[in-house]
Specification:
By secondary structure, this protein is an alpha/beta fold. The chain has a single domain, classed as Rossmann fold (3-Layer(aba) Sandwich). 47% of the residues lie in helices and 18% in strands. It has 9 helices and 7 strands; from the N terminus they run E-H-E-H-E-H-E-H-E-H-E-H-E-H-H-H. Helix 1 packs across helix 2 (42-52) and helix 3 (65-73) runs parallel beside helix 4. 43% of the residues are buried.
Length: 209
């Protein structure tokens, strides 16, 4: 299963989500292979922190688009693949979309992010391999923790109305735990297994299993 984590707009938390999902999959005996196609190489950087600090299990992160294409086309490859990418490398983005079995789209609760997601869905529709029946899934990321903030519910409603995407109906909230775990090279479920961020991420990861 090749899962691309992406959106057109920066700052949606793509790398944080991709890293946590990769760590989650790394705990399985089959492991995971990750690809960082974003020129900022944030996923590569955080994985280097994880390796340098000696955390287990480890996993490989590649920046080689040709390697991704080869793995995607290798029918003998059973290892799940997580891809982090951005619009700053449009060629790599379009290629990753064409190879994907599943596209996971984090959406921040703002009007700008809703517009950006709508544009990204057009890119997805133009580049997916129609024969693969690629899943396109969306969820709210960095949602406000205060229940009185109406933008979060409004963004959820907008997501449900979009064509070409299936809302997962879950939310990852704006929590310090995500930033802290990322800086330490740990998944949130490793840093604080009983915390709210851990429960949210476990729910997302389980839904994608």
């Amino acid at each position: 299963m090749l899962t691309v984590v992406g959106n057109l707009k920066g700052g949606t938390g793509k790398s944080t989500v991709a890293f946590n999902l990769a760590v989650w999959l790394a705990h399985d005996k089959i492991g995971v292979k990750a690809f960082d196609l974003d020129p900022q190489c944030t996923l590569l950087d955080v994985n280097e922190v994880r390796v340098e600090d000696g955390y287990e299990p480890t996993f490989d992160v590649s920046t080689d688009l040709a390697e991704l294409e080869a793995m995607a086309k290798d029918k003998k490859c059973k290892q799940p693949i997580i891809v982090d990418m951005s619009a700053t490398n449009m060629f790599a983005m379009e290629k990753a979309i064409s190879l994907a079995d599943r596209i996971l789209i984090p959406v921040q609760p703002s009007q700008a992010d809703i517009w950006s997601t709508q544009r990204f869905l057009k890119i997805v529709n133009n580049n997916i391999n129609k024969k693969k029946k690629t899943e396109v899934l969306g969820f709210l990321n960095r949602a406000d923790t205060h229940i009185g903030v109406r933008e979060t519910d409004e963004a959820e409603q907008a997501l449900q109305m979009m064509q070409g995407i299936k809302p997962l109906g879950i939310r990852l909230h704006q929590r310090t735990a995500y930033r802290r775990s990322f800086s330490e090279g740990l998944g949130v479920f490793e840093l604080d297994p009983m915390g709210k961020a851990s429960k949210e991420m476990k729910k997302l990861a389980t839904m994608l299993d």
